[in-house]
Design a protein that fits this description.
The chain is α/β, with parallel strands linked by helices and 225 residues long. 43% of the residues lie in helices and 20% in strands. Bound molecules: S-adenosyl-L-homocysteine (SAH), 3,4-dihydroxybenzoic acid and magnesium ion (MG). The site of S-adenosyl-L-homocysteine (SAH) has 19 residues, from helix 4, strand 2 and helix 6.
Protein backbone atom coordinates (compact mmCIF):
# COMPACT_ATOMS: atom_id res chain seq x y z
CA UNK A 1 0.00 0.00 0.00
CA UNK A 2 1.40 3.37 -0.97
CA UNK A 3 0.70 6.97 -0.09
CA UNK A 4 -0.35 7.47 -3.75
CA UNK A 5 -3.04 4.81 -3.36
CA UNK A 6 -4.24 6.30 -0.07
CA UNK A 7 -4.43 9.72 -1.77
CA UNK A 8 -6.37 8.29 -4.72
CA UNK A 9 -8.88 6.49 -2.49
CA UNK A 10 -9.32 9.56 -0.26
CA UNK A 11 -9.99 11.55 -3.45
CA UNK A 12 -12.55 8.95 -4.56
CA UNK A 13 -14.29 9.03 -1.18
CA UNK A 14 -14.27 12.82 -1.03
CA UNK A 15 -15.44 13.20 -4.65
CA UNK A 16 -18.44 11.00 -3.91
CA UNK A 17 -19.37 11.86 -0.34
CA UNK A 18 -17.99 15.28 0.59
CA UNK A 19 -19.67 17.98 -1.46
CA UNK A 20 -17.37 20.73 -2.78
CA UNK A 21 -17.58 23.67 -0.42
CA UNK A 22 -16.23 27.09 -1.35
CA UNK A 23 -15.89 28.27 2.27
CA UNK A 24 -13.94 25.20 3.41
CA UNK A 25 -11.75 25.27 0.28
CA UNK A 26 -11.07 28.97 0.83
CA UNK A 27 -10.00 28.25 4.43
CA UNK A 28 -7.40 25.74 3.25
CA UNK A 29 -6.25 28.09 0.49
CA UNK A 30 -5.86 31.04 2.88
CA UNK A 31 -4.06 28.83 5.41
CA UNK A 32 -1.58 27.65 2.76
CA UNK A 33 -1.07 31.21 1.51
CA UNK A 34 -0.29 32.33 5.08
CA UNK A 35 2.33 29.58 5.35
CA UNK A 36 0.49 27.38 7.85
CA UNK A 37 1.48 23.69 7.74
CA UNK A 38 -1.05 21.40 5.99
CA UNK A 39 -1.69 19.36 9.15
CA UNK A 40 -5.43 20.03 9.22
CA UNK A 41 -7.76 17.03 9.19
CA UNK A 42 -8.52 15.70 5.70
CA UNK A 43 -11.94 16.66 4.23
CA UNK A 44 -13.42 13.21 4.86
CA UNK A 45 -12.12 13.31 8.45
CA UNK A 46 -13.56 16.79 8.88
CA UNK A 47 -16.92 15.51 7.74
CA UNK A 48 -16.61 12.63 10.21
CA UNK A 49 -16.14 15.21 12.99
CA UNK A 50 -19.28 17.02 11.81
CA UNK A 51 -21.30 13.79 11.67
CA UNK A 52 -20.12 12.69 15.13
CA UNK A 53 -21.07 16.08 16.56
CA UNK A 54 -24.46 15.91 14.83
CA UNK A 55 -25.31 12.40 15.95
CA UNK A 56 -24.23 13.38 19.45
CA UNK A 57 -26.47 16.47 19.32
CA UNK A 58 -23.56 18.62 20.50
CA UNK A 59 -24.42 22.24 21.32
CA UNK A 60 -21.21 23.26 23.08
CA UNK A 61 -17.96 22.15 21.47
CA UNK A 62 -14.38 22.64 22.67
CA UNK A 63 -11.37 22.29 20.38
CA UNK A 64 -7.74 22.21 21.51
CA UNK A 65 -5.52 23.18 18.55
CA UNK A 66 -7.14 25.47 15.97
CA UNK A 67 -4.46 25.98 13.29
CA UNK A 68 -6.35 27.76 10.46
CA UNK A 69 -9.75 26.69 11.76
CA UNK A 70 -10.45 23.99 9.16
CA UNK A 71 -11.61 21.34 11.67
CA UNK A 72 -13.26 24.16 13.63
CA UNK A 73 -15.46 25.00 10.63
CA UNK A 74 -16.53 21.35 10.25
CA UNK A 75 -17.42 21.20 13.96
CA UNK A 76 -19.28 24.52 13.81
CA UNK A 77 -21.32 23.24 10.86
CA UNK A 78 -22.76 20.56 13.13
CA UNK A 79 -24.23 23.01 15.63
CA UNK A 80 -27.92 23.77 16.03
CA UNK A 81 -28.95 27.45 16.33
CA UNK A 82 -27.51 28.89 19.54
CA UNK A 83 -24.63 26.39 19.58
CA UNK A 84 -21.05 27.42 20.24
CA UNK A 85 -17.45 26.36 19.56
CA UNK A 86 -14.55 27.55 21.68
CA UNK A 87 -11.21 26.73 20.06
CA UNK A 88 -7.80 27.14 21.71
CA UNK A 89 -4.65 28.09 19.79
CA UNK A 90 -1.16 28.95 21.06
CA UNK A 91 0.24 30.66 17.95
CA UNK A 92 -1.21 34.17 17.33
CA UNK A 93 -0.61 33.94 13.57
CA UNK A 94 -2.62 30.70 13.39
CA UNK A 95 -5.43 32.25 15.42
CA UNK A 96 -5.47 35.30 13.14
CA UNK A 97 -5.78 33.14 10.00
CA UNK A 98 -8.47 31.03 11.71
CA UNK A 99 -10.48 34.14 12.64
CA UNK A 100 -10.39 35.30 9.01
CA UNK A 101 -11.51 31.88 7.81
CA UNK A 102 -14.30 31.80 10.39
CA UNK A 103 -15.42 35.31 9.43
CA UNK A 104 -15.53 34.30 5.75
CA UNK A 105 -17.78 31.40 6.77
CA UNK A 106 -20.10 33.82 8.57
CA UNK A 107 -19.46 32.01 11.86
CA UNK A 108 -17.74 34.70 13.95
CA UNK A 109 -20.71 34.81 16.32
CA UNK A 110 -20.63 31.04 16.78
CA UNK A 111 -16.89 30.37 17.12
CA UNK A 112 -14.57 31.93 19.69
CA UNK A 113 -10.82 31.59 19.09
CA UNK A 114 -8.78 31.96 22.27
CA UNK A 115 -5.06 32.67 21.94
CA UNK A 116 -2.62 31.19 24.42
CA UNK A 117 -1.28 27.81 25.43
CA UNK A 118 -4.17 25.49 26.19
CA UNK A 119 -2.34 24.64 29.41
CA UNK A 120 -3.34 28.17 30.52
CA UNK A 121 -6.61 28.67 28.66
CA UNK A 122 -8.23 25.38 29.76
CA UNK A 123 -8.15 26.31 33.49
CA UNK A 124 -9.48 29.73 32.50
CA UNK A 125 -12.51 28.10 30.84
CA UNK A 126 -13.21 26.26 34.07
CA UNK A 127 -12.91 29.45 36.14
CA UNK A 128 -15.35 31.22 33.83
CA UNK A 129 -17.89 28.43 34.18
CA UNK A 130 -17.83 27.62 30.45
CA UNK A 131 -18.17 23.89 31.10
CA UNK A 132 -19.63 21.43 30.44
CA UNK A 133 -18.83 20.84 26.79
CA UNK A 134 -20.78 18.15 24.95
CA UNK A 135 -17.84 17.33 22.69
CA UNK A 136 -14.11 18.07 22.83
CA UNK A 137 -11.68 17.61 19.93
CA UNK A 138 -8.04 17.35 21.07
CA UNK A 139 -5.59 18.14 18.25
CA UNK A 140 -2.74 20.33 19.55
CA UNK A 141 0.84 19.61 20.73
CA UNK A 142 0.95 15.84 21.01
CA UNK A 143 3.35 15.81 23.97
CA UNK A 144 0.61 17.22 26.20
CA UNK A 145 -2.31 15.17 24.91
CA UNK A 146 -2.72 13.37 28.26
CA UNK A 147 -2.99 16.74 30.06
CA UNK A 148 -5.57 17.94 27.55
CA UNK A 149 -7.51 14.72 28.01
CA UNK A 150 -7.57 15.27 31.78
CA UNK A 151 -8.87 18.80 31.20
CA UNK A 152 -11.40 17.68 28.60
CA UNK A 153 -12.75 15.20 31.13
CA UNK A 154 -12.89 17.87 33.81
CA UNK A 155 -14.86 20.11 31.43
CA UNK A 156 -17.26 17.29 30.47
CA UNK A 157 -20.53 15.95 31.78
CA UNK A 158 -21.76 12.37 31.85
CA UNK A 159 -22.46 11.63 28.17
CA UNK A 160 -19.84 13.99 26.70
CA UNK A 161 -17.63 12.79 23.85
CA UNK A 162 -13.86 13.37 23.68
CA UNK A 163 -12.22 12.85 20.29
CA UNK A 164 -8.41 12.79 20.04
CA UNK A 165 -6.49 13.04 16.77
CA UNK A 166 -3.11 11.55 15.82
CA UNK A 167 -3.08 8.63 18.23
CA UNK A 168 -1.11 6.26 15.97
CA UNK A 169 1.67 8.36 14.36
CA UNK A 170 2.70 5.90 11.63
CA UNK A 171 2.61 3.13 14.24
CA UNK A 172 5.35 4.75 16.34
CA UNK A 173 2.99 4.82 19.31
CA UNK A 174 3.71 1.15 20.10
CA UNK A 175 7.47 1.80 20.42
CA UNK A 176 8.16 2.24 24.14
CA UNK A 177 11.80 3.10 23.36
CA UNK A 178 10.89 6.02 21.06
CA UNK A 179 12.31 9.17 22.69
CA UNK A 180 10.16 11.66 20.72
CA UNK A 181 8.18 13.70 23.26
CA UNK A 182 5.13 13.54 20.97
CA UNK A 183 5.20 9.73 20.96
CA UNK A 184 5.82 9.52 24.68
CA UNK A 185 2.97 12.00 25.19
CA UNK A 186 0.61 9.86 23.13
CA UNK A 187 1.63 6.75 25.10
CA UNK A 188 0.84 8.62 28.34
CA UNK A 189 -2.55 9.47 26.82
CA UNK A 190 -3.34 5.76 26.27
CA UNK A 191 -2.22 4.95 29.82
CA UNK A 192 -4.39 7.74 31.24
CA UNK A 193 -7.45 6.62 29.26
CA UNK A 194 -6.87 2.99 30.20
CA UNK A 195 -6.72 3.92 33.89
CA UNK A 196 -9.79 6.18 33.75
CA UNK A 197 -12.94 4.44 34.97
CA UNK A 198 -15.20 7.34 33.92
CA UNK A 199 -14.77 6.80 30.16
CA UNK A 200 -15.42 4.06 27.64
CA UNK A 201 -12.90 4.44 24.82
CA UNK A 202 -11.50 2.99 21.63
CA UNK A 203 -9.10 4.03 18.87
CA UNK A 204 -9.05 3.36 15.14
CA UNK A 205 -6.08 3.35 12.76
CA UNK A 206 -6.52 5.39 9.58
CA UNK A 207 -4.71 5.77 6.26
CA UNK A 208 -5.40 8.49 3.74
CA UNK A 209 -4.14 11.74 2.32
CA UNK A 210 -2.64 12.60 5.73
CA UNK A 211 -0.69 9.35 5.90
CA UNK A 212 -0.99 6.58 8.50
CA UNK A 213 -2.42 7.73 11.81
CA UNK A 214 -5.58 7.31 13.86
CA UNK A 215 -8.10 8.82 16.20
CA UNK A 216 -9.58 7.90 19.56
CA UNK A 217 -13.13 8.26 20.86
CA UNK A 218 -13.88 8.40 24.58
CA UNK A 219 -17.45 8.53 25.84
CA UNK A 220 -17.78 9.92 29.35
CA UNK A 221 -19.84 7.27 31.09
CA UNK A 222 -19.18 8.33 34.68
CA UNK A 223 -19.79 11.64 36.40
CA UNK A 224 -16.60 13.71 35.95
CA UNK A 225 -17.35 15.85 39.05
N1 LIG B 1 -7.33 21.05 14.40
C1 LIG B 1 -6.65 21.62 13.26
C2 LIG B 1 -5.18 21.25 13.22
C3 LIG B 1 -4.42 21.62 14.46
S1 LIG B 1 -2.67 21.48 14.23
C4 LIG B 1 -7.33 21.11 11.98
O1 LIG B 1 -7.50 19.88 11.86
O2 LIG B 1 -7.66 21.91 11.10
C5 LIG B 1 -2.15 21.73 15.89
C6 LIG B 1 -2.30 23.17 16.37
O3 LIG B 1 -2.08 23.17 17.79
C7 LIG B 1 -1.30 24.15 15.77
O4 LIG B 1 -1.93 25.26 15.23
C8 LIG B 1 -0.43 24.55 16.95
O5 LIG B 1 0.02 25.90 16.92
C9 LIG B 1 -1.41 24.36 18.11
N2 LIG B 1 -0.75 24.23 19.41
C10 LIG B 1 0.47 23.74 19.69
N3 LIG B 1 0.73 23.81 21.00
C11 LIG B 1 -0.37 24.34 21.58
C12 LIG B 1 -0.73 24.68 22.91
N4 LIG B 1 0.11 24.46 23.93
N5 LIG B 1 -1.95 25.23 23.15
C13 LIG B 1 -2.80 25.45 22.12
N6 LIG B 1 -2.52 25.15 20.84
C14 LIG B 1 -1.33 24.62 20.57
C1 LIG C 1 0.75 17.03 13.03
C2 LIG C 1 -0.28 17.51 13.81
C3 LIG C 1 -1.58 17.10 13.55
O1 LIG C 1 -2.61 17.53 14.31
C4 LIG C 1 -1.85 16.24 12.51
O2 LIG C 1 -3.15 15.86 12.30
C5 LIG C 1 -0.82 15.77 11.72
C6 LIG C 1 0.48 16.17 11.98
C7 LIG C 1 2.14 17.45 13.32
O3 LIG C 1 2.33 18.22 14.27
O4 LIG C 1 3.03 17.02 12.59
MG1 LIG D 1 -4.36 16.37 13.97
Amino acid sequence: MSQEQWNAVDRYITDHLVAPDAVLDAALEASAKAGLPAINVAPNQGKLLMLLAQLHGARRILEVGTLGGYSTLWLARALPPGGRVITLEAVPKHAEVARENIARAGLSDVVEVRVGSAIDTLPQLEKEGQAPFDLTFIDADKARTADYFAWALKLSRKGSLIITDNVVRKGAVIDAANTDANIQGMRRFYEAVAAEPRVSATAVQTVGSKGYDGFALALVTGDPK
